[in-house]
């Protein structure tokens, strides 16, 4: 006889607890990313190459995936794998690499505040592509929930946090080229996420092996991008202990998101990213003495309502 708690098998409760822990950890990592980057700054500037960091994150994910394979899935080392299983991950890695580089170049055609506001549109592009390509019909209630996530992101980006010593008025600036680039960015962001989810779910291979393929191409393509960009200085120039924290945390988050896409969906990922606003705000208040504004509380209300609409009892 299987043991149970409140009518649920203990194994199911254990899995639920592990799932919740992963999502909370992911929310914490997403939310702490921007404050960690600020901690890395020297005289207000990022002292290291962002391309180097991306390469190291992909390499760390590859090493973690290999360790998981050797520790828990050793029997898979003898499995015959066709190039048809491996090749799709090259396109996935290419889409991710293209978006990472696009983020850097977009900054030339818009100010950071505009990027923060408009990048929330990737929620809509991801949901549309998720519905279209994975044939997941979303009800009006769920679409309303996702639009509330967009509203939350825009509210927070428009002034959820305020520096008491600086003017509160926010001015947005973007060129026509910038508008085109942000549209392409949102499209590729949604496409890369949905395409990767489709591969992970349609292939019968275990996740540890799929991650190995994905991150191999990730390292390869980002290394090519690094040498192509002719980055000044050494590969590790400007690195500090804070940068290492960013590399390890982002690698861990990447692995968590692959589990989310394999066993849940990109919609769950969107909710995790939106919830990270809370962590970002709390860290910004604690570390940089920023103040919460009415827009922050509007954003939190929108997220709470969105979670209720999407996951709540109908």
Task: Give a quick rundown of the structure.
The chain is mostly helical and 314 residues long. It has helices spanning 10-40, 50-72, 83-86, 88-106, 112-118, 122-133, 140-157, 176-202, 207-228, 241-263, 266-288, 294-311; strands spanning 4-5, 8-9, 161-162, 291-292. The chain has one domain.
Notable features of this structure?
314 residues; mainly alpha; two-stranded antiparallel sheet; globular
Question: How would you characterize this protein structure?
Answer:
- The structure is a single chain.
- The chain is 72% helix and 3% strand.
- It is built from twelve helices and four strands, in the order ββαααααααβααααβα.
- A two-stranded antiparallel ribbon has the order 1-2.
- α1 (10-40) packs across α11 and α2 crosses α10.
- The longest helix has 31 residues, at 10-40.
- Residues 4-8 have low confidence and may be disordered.
- The chain crosses the membrane at residues 12-33, 45-69, 76-97, 143-162, 174-200, 212-229, 241-260, 267-288, 294-313.
- It is found in: Golgi apparatus membrane.
- Belongs to the nucleotide-sugar transporter family. SLC35A subfamily.
- This is Solute carrier family 35 member A4.
């Amino acid at each position: 006889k299987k043991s149970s708690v409140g009518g649920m098998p203990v194994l199911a409760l254990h899995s639920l607890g592990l799932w919740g822990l992963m999502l909370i950890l992911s929310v914490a990592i997403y939310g702490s990313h921007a404050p960690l980057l600020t901690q890395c700054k020297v005289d207000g500037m990022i002292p290291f190459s962002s391309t180097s960091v991306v390469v190291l994150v992909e390499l760390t994910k590859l090493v973690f995936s290999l360790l998981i394979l050797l520790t828990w899935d050793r029997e898979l080392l003898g499995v015959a794998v066709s190039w048809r299983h491996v090749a799709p991950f090259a396109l996935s890695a290419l889409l991710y690499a293209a978006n990472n580089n696009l983020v850097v170049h977009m900054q030339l055609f818009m100010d950071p505040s505009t990027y923060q506001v408009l990048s929330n549109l990737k929620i809509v592009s991801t949901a549309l592509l998720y519905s279209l390509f994975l044939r997941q019909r979303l009800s009006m209630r769920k679409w309303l929930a996702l639009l509330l996530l967009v509203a939350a992101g825009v509210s927070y980006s428009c002034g959820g946090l305020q520096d008491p010593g600086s003017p509160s008025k926010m001015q947005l600036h973007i060129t026509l080229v910038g508008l085109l680039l942000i549209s392409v960015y949102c499209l590729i962001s949604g496409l890369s996420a949905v395409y990767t989810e489709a591969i992970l779910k349609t292939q019968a291979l275990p996740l540890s092996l799929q991650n190995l393929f994905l991150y191999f191409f990730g390292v390869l393509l980002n290394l090519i991008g690094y040498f192509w960009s002719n980055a000044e200085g050494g590969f590790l120039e400007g690195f500090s202990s804070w940068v290492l924290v960013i590399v390890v945390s982002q690698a861990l988050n990447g692995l968590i998101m692959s589990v989310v896409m394999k066993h849940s969906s990109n919609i769950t990922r969107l909710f995790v990213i939106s919830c990270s606003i809370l962590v970002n705000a709390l860290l910004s208040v604690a570390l940089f003495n920023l103040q919460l504004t009415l827009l922050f509380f509007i954003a939190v209300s929108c997220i709470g309502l969105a979670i209720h609409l999407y996951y709540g009892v109908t």
